[in-house]
Inverse folding.
C-alpha cells in the first residue's frame, strides 16, 4: 500500500509538471494553475485540501488572499461548532452571524461542504422564531435572507420564511387595529366612542380569527414568534375591552356623583346668610325632584347598556338614591318643627353632611364629605349656626369647621341661639383645641361627642364684619392634617 501510494504521488507530480509546462506555453501562469487546483480540491474534497496547492502560489499578495479563505472558512466552521455548546440565545445568534459573515467573505467559486450548509441552515433557521418573538422582524428577515444565500433554501429556512410572513401579517393587522382603537379613544361623545370601540373590537376579533387560520395553514401556529405576537395582539384587544368597560363604569358612576352633588347643592341665600323654613323646604323639594330626574337618566343609560352596567353599579346607585331620599325625609321632618328651628340660628347648606356622600376627589383612606357652607356679612356680635350630620355608630369620624380667617369657633350639642344660654346651661365646647390646625376647628370622634344628629356652633367676632367657611366630616382629621 505504501509503494502504491508513492507511485501514485510520483505520477501525479509528473502530470502536474506537464500541466504547468502546458500552462506556461499557452499563456497561463503557474499561480493560476495552483489557484484552480486548490479551488478544485476544496470543492471536490474539503477546504483544507486546497492548502498544499495554494502554498505553491508565488505572488505573495495572491497567496495571502487564498490562504485567508481557509482562515475564514475555519473561523465560520468553528462558529457553527460552538452552537453545540452555547446555550443562551444571544450567543447562538452571535455564532450564526459570525459563521455567515465569514462564509459570505469567501470567493464565489468556493463551495461550502454539505455538512456546513445543513448545520448552518438548521441553527440559523432556529434563531428566526426567537427574533420574531422579540419583535426584531427586520433582523429576522435579514438573517434569513443571508442564510439562504450562503447555505441554500433548506426546508427549515422555508419554514422560517413562512413564520416571518405570518408574523409580518400579524404586525400589520396589529398596527391597523391599534389605529382604529386610538381613533375611538379620541372621541369625546360617549355614545359615539362606544360605537367606535365596538367596531375596533370587532376588527380585533376578525384579525385574530384570520391570523390563526393563516398560521395553522402555514404550519407555524406553535412557533414562538407566532404565538408571542398573536398573544400581543390579543392583549391589545383585552386592553381595549378593559378601557371600554371602565368607560361604561365611569359613566355610570357619573350619575352617582351627580346625585351626590345635587344632594349637596347649596341655594342662594340672602345678604345675611339666612333662609326661612319655607325656603329650606322648597330647596329640598327641588333637590328631590332633581335626584329623581338624574336617576331616570341613569335608568335609561342602564337599559341602553344592559350587558355593561353590572349589578354592583345598579345596587350602589339604587342604595345611594334610597339613602338620600331617607335623609331628605329626615330633613323635612326636622324643619317641620318651625318654632324650635327658628330659635337655632342660621342654617348651613346642605343641611346634612357625612361620609355617606363623600367628596369624589377624596382618597379611600382619607375620605371627606362634601362640605356644608356658610357665610354672612355685617356681623355685630357672635352669630349662631346649626346643621345635621350623619355618622354611623362605631365610626371615629371627625367634624371640622374651617373659616377663611382666624376668628374663634365653639361647637355645642344644644341650641345656642344666644350666648347667655351657653353660660346659663353650662354648655361644653366640643372643639378639641389641641388638634386645631390653622383656621380649622376639629371635633374629634364627633359621633361619640354629639348627642344627636345635630350640631350647633358659634362664630365669634373677627377683624371684619364678613366671614365665610365650611363644615366637613373627615374619616380622620388628625391623619389628614399631620
Amino acid at each position: 500500500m505504501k509503494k502504491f501510494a508513492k507511485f501514485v504521488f510520483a505520477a501525479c507530480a509528473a502530470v502536474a509538471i506537464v500541466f504547468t509546462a502546458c500552462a506556461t506555453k499557452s499563456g497561463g501562469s503557474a499561480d493560476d494553475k495552483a489557484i484552480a487546483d486548490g479551488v478544485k480540491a476544496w470543492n471536490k474534497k474539503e477546504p483544507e485540501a486546497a492548502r498544499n496547492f495554494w502554498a505553491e502560489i508565488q505572488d505573495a499578495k495572491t497567496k495571502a488572499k487564498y490562504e485567508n479563505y481557509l482562515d475564514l472558512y475555519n473561523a465560520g466552521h468553528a462558529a457553527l461548532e460552538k452552537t453545540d455548546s452555547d446555550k443562551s440565545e444571544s450567543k447562538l445568534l452571535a455564532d450564526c452571524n459570525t459563521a455567515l459573515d465569514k462564509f459570505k467573505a469567501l470567493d464565489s467559486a468556493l463551495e461550502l461542504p454539505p455538512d456546513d450548509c445543513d448545520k448552518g441552515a438548521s441553527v440559523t433557521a432556529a434563531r428566526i422564531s426567537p427574533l420574531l418573538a422579540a419583535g426584531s422582524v427586520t433582523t429576522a428577515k435579514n438573517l434569513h435572507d443571508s442564510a439562504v444565500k450562503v447555505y441554500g433554501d433548506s426546508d427549515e429556512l422555508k419554514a422560517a420564511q413562512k413564520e416571518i410572513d405570518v408574523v409580518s401579517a400579524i404586525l400589520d393587522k396589529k398596527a391597523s387595529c391599534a389605529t382604529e382603537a386610538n381613533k375611538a379613544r379620541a372621541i369625546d361623545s360617549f355614545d359615539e366612542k362606544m360605537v367606535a370601540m365596538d367596531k375596533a373590537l370587532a376588527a380585533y376579533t376578525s384579525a385574530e380569527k384570520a391570523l390563526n387560520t393563516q398560521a395553522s395553514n402555514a404550519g407555524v401556529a406553535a412557533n414562538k414568534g407566532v404565538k408571542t405576537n398573536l398573544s400581543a395582539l390579543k392583549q391589545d384587544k383585552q386592553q381595549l375591552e378593559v378601557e371600554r368597560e371602565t368607560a361604561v363604569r365611569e359613566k355610570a358612576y357619573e350619575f352617582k356623583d351627580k346625585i351626590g352633588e345635587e344632594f349637596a347643592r347649596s341655594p342662594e341665600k340672602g345678604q345675611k346668610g339666612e333662609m326661612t323654613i319655607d325656603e329650606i323646604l322648597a330647596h329640598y323639594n327641588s333637590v328631590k325632584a332633581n335626584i329623581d330626574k338624574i336617576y331616570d337618566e341613569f335608568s335609561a343609560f342602564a337599559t341602553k347598556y344592559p350587558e355593561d352596567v353590572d349589578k354592583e353599579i345598579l345596587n350602589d346607585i339604587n342604595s345611594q338614591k334610597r339613602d338620600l331620599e331617607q335623609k331628605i325625609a329626615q330633613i323635612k321632618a326636622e324643619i317641620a318643627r318651625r318654632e324650635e328651628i327658628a330659635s337655632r340660628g342660621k342654617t348651613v347648606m346642605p343641611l346634612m353632611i357625612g361620609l355617606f356622600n363623600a367628596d369624589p376627589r377624596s382618597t379611600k383612606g382619607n375620605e371627606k364629605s362634601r362640605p356644608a357652607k356658610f357665610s354672612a356679612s355685617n356681623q355685630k356680635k357672635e352669630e349662631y349656626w346649626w346643621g345635621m350630620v350623619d355618622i354611623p355608630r362605631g365610626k371615629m369620624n371627625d367634624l371640622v369647621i374651617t373659616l377663611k380667617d382666624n376668628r374663634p369657633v365653639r361647637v355645642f350639642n344644644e341650641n345656642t341661639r344666644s350666648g347667655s344660654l351657653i353660660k346659663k346651661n353650662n354648655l361644653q365646647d366640643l372643639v378639641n383645641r389641641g388638634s386645631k390646625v390653622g383656621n380649622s376647628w376639629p371635633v374629634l370622634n364627633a359621633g361619640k361627642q354629639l348627642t344627636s344628629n345635630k350640631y350647633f356652633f358659634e362664630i365669634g367676632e373677627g377683624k371684619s364684619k364678613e366671614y365665610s367657611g365650611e363644615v366637613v366630616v373627615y374619616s380622620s382629621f388628625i391623619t389628614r392634617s399631620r
About this structure: Residues 147 and 153 are 8 Å apart (CA to CA). The two ends are 103 Å apart (CA to CA). The first strand starts at residue 346 and ends at 353.
